[in-house]
Amino acid sequence: MSVSTDPTLRSGLRIAIVGATGAVGQVALQILADRKWPADRLVLMASARSAGKEIAYLGRKLKIVEGRADAFAGIDVAFISATTAVSRELAPVLARQGVLVIDDSGAFRMQADVPLVVPEVNGKDVLGHRGIISIPNCTTTPLVMVLAALRSLAPLRRVTVATYQAVSGTGAAAVRELDEQNAAIVEGRDTARSVYPHRIAYNLLPQVDRFLDDGYTAEEHKMTNETRKILHEPALPLSSTCVRVPVRISHSEAVHVELARPVDPAEARRVLASFPGIRVVDDPANSDYPMPDQAAGKDPVLVGRIRRDSSHPDGLVLWLSCDNLRKGAALNAMQILDEAVRLGALKPRAAVN
Amino acid sequence: MSVSTDPTLRSGLRIAIVGATGAVGQVALQILADRKWPADRLVLMASARSAGKEIAYLGRKLKIVEGRADAFAGIDVAFISATTAVSRELAPVLARQGVLVIDDSGAFRMQADVPLVVPEVNGKDVLGHRGIISIPNCTTTPLVMVLAALRSLAPLRRVTVATYQAVSGTGAAAVRELDEQNAAIVEGRDTARSVYPHRIAYNLLPQVDRFLDDGYTAEEHKMTNETRKILHEPALPLSSTCVRVPVRISHSEAVHVELARPVDPAEARRVLASFPGIRVVDDPANSDYPMPDQAAGKDPVLVGRIRRDSSHPDGLVLWLSCDNLRKGAALNAMQILDEAVRLGALKPRAAVN
Questions:
Q1: Which residue range(s) make up the domain with A120?
Q2: pTM of the prediction?
Q3: Running DSSP on this structure, what letter comes out for residue A2?
Q4: Within a domain: B352
Q5: Which of A20, B100, B261, B285 is paired with B170 by a 20 to 30 Å CA distance?
Q6: B228 — contact with chain A (CB < 8 Å)?
Q7: Same domain, A95 and A15
Q8: A 264-323 residues with CB below 8 A of B?
Q9: pLDDT tens, B135-149?
């Protein structure tokens, strides 16, 4: 067997996954397994409820450990994808212990001393970390990749988005709820619900996360604030409507972008196609366009329906689908680790207080 | 029993429904039954395949007649909701026979001598008919109602829309396809498809109708062209992305509107709430907002999530859901007839050639 050319794999690092039983944790495990990440350099953690259970990994059984601050001896990198409360409690403590925390929650994303990173867009930002690096919300990641690609053609002027978000973004329980409701409806039974405030099967919820005073949801605010931070464009005008749809995996977005000059769709298609992590799927004549079921389980952000905005001379319209658990979360986290290894940024400059 | 105060009901008119077995035809029948429209002033028509079958109506059985041009003797009004080909063949012939045709297809909507009418918005346009009045596409109708309400505050400058369209817009076969695919998926079986080019269950299709050369679909063009015609604003900038979602009934839309001045959401809420046919459902604190399952089977267009557009000083953002079979089709048709009766416009000025 040849020696791996993957610097992260050769690094000898030990990784902990906190939230290993969750929807994102499971995909993280899958990605590590695909890389043949050695089982003895992997620790799976979850809540006390799951501690002691075993998870299959590369032909072995890994026992789940309770994710307590004192369980991280010998761990170099912790990927946390649990609840925001878990992230708030664990991340600063681990950072002080010298563990690099890659955090999936919204707890630290907008903190000035925490880089918020999509490696294809602002990979160098990992250099500024003080022990915690955040990954963006799963709707932000594909959007900033598209915007970064288009910005190479002309400055961005304004962005509006309508999302179509899969239930796995809420977690594994929401996927079960959708499945159970669908089963009940096709069998003519009454539906039950516990995760969402309304039925999601055969329905749409124009609410993701809680509402704020301005009528936007926290999800919609995240999209604006995180996009601005990642693109280093603190005043970029952006407005979105975030909607939950009865789909298991992959978020989709209808995006209107205004640029500083008219951009031909062919130009846009070219820069999008050559942007790392994006695959252009745009052959309408053959009904070929991004769809959630096609993006699910795949790495790239799928972008298509690229056309002029018929309502604005400098506008483009497009449609994207992206696996919210993969590039929207676990894959992006792994790529952040790769970037930190590559740039020699594993040791924080100084721990977060 | 008291005499009806409904002038259309008292008119003595005889109505034919062409496409009585279809998704829209069935809703039209329901609306007529709710009005206690007399069975002897109603003729149900469909294709030769359905001719002879019986449909229950107000405790009677009505036999379906084949919808041929020579079957309309004694009919005053024909509501056609079949295929575009059927509309193209029948409507001009009937108009020449003096039948008022209210047509649900895209065949005549953009024809200059055919009024395209949403009674709450441009009811008086029925006066210009020459035998055919078209009803708009089911995504256009709720949008123009919202735009007409907002226009009372300030001129419209630009509109962008992302739609979330129910499968019943395609027809009853598409509803069965969604149900069958959902059943197969929850039971772990393979799905089959025949109506759509891709699976619709647990998925999204960013294609409604066929693609045109500019990258937009015919559905997206309809939305622009029909909105301009109904609002009498032939240059209104409008761009949309039309998406099919796994929902049975009710189309939803995320709408960005730019006006000629900043409009306070409270002002917008007021004019929307007082606009006929619109119900404002906008209480985010109680997770109360328009949803397709709440709009289905109801008359009003539900509008909510009304807020400032954080990306434009003169912009508003909102979300709507509307029963695509009811106000999106059959109800609007019935209201056009009411308007024609009320305005004494039943007889055309001169038949369409």
A1: 7-136+329-342
A2: 0.96
A3: P
A4: no
A5: B100
A6: no
A7: yes
A8: 265, 284-285, 287, 289-293, 304-312, 315, 317, 319, 321
A9: 999 999 999 999 999
